[in-house]
């Protein structure tokens, strides 16, 4: 018996036969062969065996899910893919793409869109990124999708806004510098380690003219993080303001050597170098930036052009601004600088001083404000963050005429942040009595209340806006007061003193709502305006009056009286309607 078994074994198992090794790799290869033959049923069985042999390998589950999807069993495929993401490997991004395909085949296009977005979030440059982008476009264009994408964008915008509010960027980007200071001081007090808030508070101090506080805040960041590029840039700008050339030279040195890899940081370093007058270093920094952004990036083109213009390479600057002019949003800025280059070349100048900021120069912006004040509702533009930021900057750094325009523009904006900006400006010791009066008039027009601080020859004083007389506006222009004096004398001479109060309200309303807002408007002949004012007041009081009689008494033409009274009446009526609407609201 034993010998038979031995002989049988010897014949049945020859020594040159190799035992078959059954493992996951074997069944994977077997499954792939079945797939190539389109034998899906047997392929499923093969890939099921891979899962049995290697239950901890998520790839095996994905392969099986793929074959199930080919068979049309999308629910079973989704179960496997969700199992992988929830229990095995949450970072296996391709599962989201597979799920998107399955949901699309099931007709659930919103779910497909959600999963495509999730895949692109996790792996924007992954193996299936191009297919995912194409599929997303098809879902939106051909199947009426886009709801998930819109929800995602709203969620991202909300999250970004909340983060921006937390670190103060929201207020800075919207030009609300006074609010930014108040908010960020609270944030830093609650969390002294919040570096982003400290950097933004440094900027907010700078924009509100608190330069010592701004520098101290930048230094506090550098004490914690000596290599913080935002703080290094802020410190360099502040030292430029203080005129400390030795300290500035030391502060600029690390900015000259650093090579940031993030485009936004590289941009800030380049702009800072240009702002502090290191134009050659700025040119080199912008050239490094060219490796990180597209070659036609507007900020890159303008930064390179500005550096060349400041260095005297006007031909290079001109060529770059011509490229910038192809961008519709930047064409006006490019045309402005191209005209400056042409003027400089005609005058034989070797260089042109150019700001590195990609925005319209202050003079043009304020001219635009002036025009828009006349042609459109302030509500259309007063919330424009770039314009608001420009106004605040110009209030602090502009020449006298620029400041006068800004004061009037902020009087129209009229919100709490504009009020605070005007109050801060009023507290400066370097503005004269005329600018102080104009600022007080703007605050009175806004209905501002509370204490304000201003400087007199003997030093700073405090007063309450409620105590500032409403007719302070008459002090701004001698002709404005002359008109009132003529009208008041005429009423007193004819025993019409009961109408003096109404006449004063009419005249002040017209000044606050029209003449004060436009520096171009002038009163050439006070007699015409006094006659026009009286005609409106008498008519509203039902006192018999003829235009020709009033015109004769003041020695003016009927047409000039009529013109003045019509303009005045329109403004007064509009102001009354606005006041009524404010009361109703």
UniProtKB/TrEMBL annotation:
TPR repeats: 24-57, 93-126, 195-228
Lineage per the UniProt record: Bacteria, Bacillati, Bacillota, Bacilli, Bacillales
Keywords recorded for this protein, A-Z: Repeat, TPR repeat
Protein name: Tetratricopeptide repeat protein
């Amino acid at each position: 018996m034993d010998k038979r078994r031995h002989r049988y074994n010897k014949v049945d198992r020859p020594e040159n036969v190799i035992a078959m090794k059954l493992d996951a790799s074997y069944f994977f290869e077997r499954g792939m062969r079945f797939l190539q033959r389109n034998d899906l049923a047997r392929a499923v069985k093969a890939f099921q065996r891979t899962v049995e042999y290697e239950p901890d390998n998520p790839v095996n589950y994905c392969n099986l899910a793929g074959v199930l999807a080919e068979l049309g069993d999308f629910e079973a495929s989704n179960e496997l893919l969700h199992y992988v993401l929830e229990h095995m490997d949450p970072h296996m991004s391709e599962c989201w793409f597979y799920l998107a395909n399955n949901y699309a085949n099931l007709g659930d296009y919103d779910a497909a869109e959600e999963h495509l977005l999730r895949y692109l979030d996790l792996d924007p440059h992954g193996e299936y990124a191009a297919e995912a982008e194409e599929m997303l476009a098809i879902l939106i264009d051909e199947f009426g999708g886009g709801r998930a994408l819109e929800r995602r964008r709203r969620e991202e915008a909300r999250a970004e806004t909340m983060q921006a509010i937390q670190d103060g960027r929201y207020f800075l980007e919207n030009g609300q510098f006074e609010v930014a200071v108040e908010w960020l001081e609270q944030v830093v007090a609650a969390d002294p380690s919040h570096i982003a808030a400290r950097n933004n508070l440094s900027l907010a101090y700078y924009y509100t003219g608190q330069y010592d506080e701004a520098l101290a805040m930048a230094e506090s960041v550098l004490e914690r993080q000596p290599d913080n590029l935002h703080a290094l840039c802020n410190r360099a700008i502040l030292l430029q303001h203080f005129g400390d050339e030795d300290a500035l030279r030391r502060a600029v040195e690390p900015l000259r050597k650093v090579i940031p890899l993030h485009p936004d940081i590289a941009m800030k370093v380049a702009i800072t170098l240009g702002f502090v007058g290191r134009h050659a270093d700025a040119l080199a920094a912008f050239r490094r930036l060219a490796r990180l952004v597209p070659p036609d990036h507007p900020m890159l083109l303008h930064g390179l052009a500005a550096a060349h213009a400041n260095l005297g390479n006007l031909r290079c600057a001109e060529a770059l601004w011509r490229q910038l002019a192809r961008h519709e949003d930047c064409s006006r800025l490019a045309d402005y600088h191209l005209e400056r280059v042409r003027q400089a070349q005609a005058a034989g100048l070797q260089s042109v001083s150019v700001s590195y900021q990609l925005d319209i120069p202050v003079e043009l912006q304020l001219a635009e404000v002036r025009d828009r004040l006349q042609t459109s509702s302030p509500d259309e533009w007063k919330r424009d963050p770039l314009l608001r930021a420009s106004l605040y900057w110009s209030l602090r750094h502009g020449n006298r005429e620029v400041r006068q325009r800004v004061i009037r523009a902020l009087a129209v904006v009229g919100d709490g942040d504009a009020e605070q900006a005007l109050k801060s400006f009023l507290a400066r010791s370097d503005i004269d009595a005329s600018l102080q009066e104009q600022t007080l008039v703007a605050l009175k027009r806004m209905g501002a209340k509370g204490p304000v601080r201003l400087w007199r020859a003997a030093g700073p004083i405090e007063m309450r806006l409620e105590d500032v007389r409403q007719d302070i506006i008459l002090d701004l222009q001698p002709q404005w007061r002359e008109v009132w004096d003529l009208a008041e004398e005429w009423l007193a001479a004819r025993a019409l003193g009961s109408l003096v109060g109404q006449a004063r309200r009419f005249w002040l309303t017209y000044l606050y709502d029209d003449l004060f807002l436009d520096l171009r408007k002038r009163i050439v002949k006070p007699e015409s305006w006094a006659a026009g004012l009286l005609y409106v007041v008498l008519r509203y009081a039902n006192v018999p009056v003829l235009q020709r009689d009033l015109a004769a008494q003041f020695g003016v033409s009927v047409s000039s009286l009529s013109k003045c009274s019509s303009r005045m009446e329109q403004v007064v009526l509009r102001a009354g309607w606005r006041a009524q609407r404010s009361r109703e609201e």
